[in-house]
Structure formats: C-alpha cells, structure tokens
Amino acid sequence: MSQPVIPVIPMTTTDALPEALRQDRVVNRATILTSRGHPNPGSARDGLAEWAQSNGFDALVGVRLLAIPEIVSPGDTTTEVKWAAYGTAIGW
C-alpha cells in the first residue's frame, strides 16, 4: 500500500531562496504571515506552510520561530510557552 503524497512548500530562514530553488523564477507577489499560539515550533511552522499552500503561494522565506511566555491565568505568575512563526510567503 502506498503512502499518501503530502504536498510540501520550500521554506528557508534566509531572506531569499537558495540558488537551486530560484531557477528562472520571478517573484510576482508576496505577503507577510504570522502563525501564533502553537504548543511547539513544528506546529507553528506547519501553520505558515498550510496557509501559504492553501492560498496559492509557492515558497516561504525569512521564516523565524519565537517562543512566547503567556500567563496561564490572571493574578497568577505561572506561565506557559506558546510558539509563533512568521515569514514571507512568495509566489511566482
């Protein structure tokens, strides 16, 4: 039985695509994305990728991950770490 094909989108922490992915492509649209409130960095990253793919973008550049402490309940000093990702979706 074959595994289902999961679509992937190129993603890089640099501000441009690596040379191997650029080829002769010309970026004709871009938008800044954020994905916040995730329990781990992987789900934050996946949130960016899912949005970019579902909206017809071809790659993500300048991706950053950020751990954010959030107060669990008002008046309490207990915090919980939530993860956010941000970057730029590009299309050609």
Could you characterize what this model shows?
The chain contains 2 helices and 3 strands, in the order H-E-H-E-E. The protein is elongated and about 55 Å long. A hairpin with a 7-residue loop joins strand 2 (59-71) and strand 3 (79-91). The N and C termini lie far apart (35 Å). It has a 3-stranded antiparallel sheet, covered by helices on one side. By secondary structure, it is an alpha+beta fold. The protein has one domain. The mean pLDDT is 89.
- What does the overall shape look like? elongated
List the total number of helices.
2
**Category from helices, strands and their pairing:** alpha+beta
Secondary-structure element order, as H and E?
Answer: HEHEE
The domain count comes to 1
Q: Poorly predicted ranges (pLDDT <50, ≥5 residues)?
A: none
- Write down the overall mean pLDDT: 89
Number of strands: 3
Which percent band covers the strand fraction?
Answer: 35-45%
Largest sheet: 3 strands, antiparallel
Going across the biggest sheet, name each strand in turn: 1-3-2
Tell me the span between the first and last alpha carbons.
35 Å
Helix content: 10-25%
Computed CA radius of gyration, to the nearest angstrom: 16 Å
Structure summary:
The protein is α+β, with helices and mostly antiparallel strands and 92 residues long. 20% of the residues lie in helices and 39% in strands.
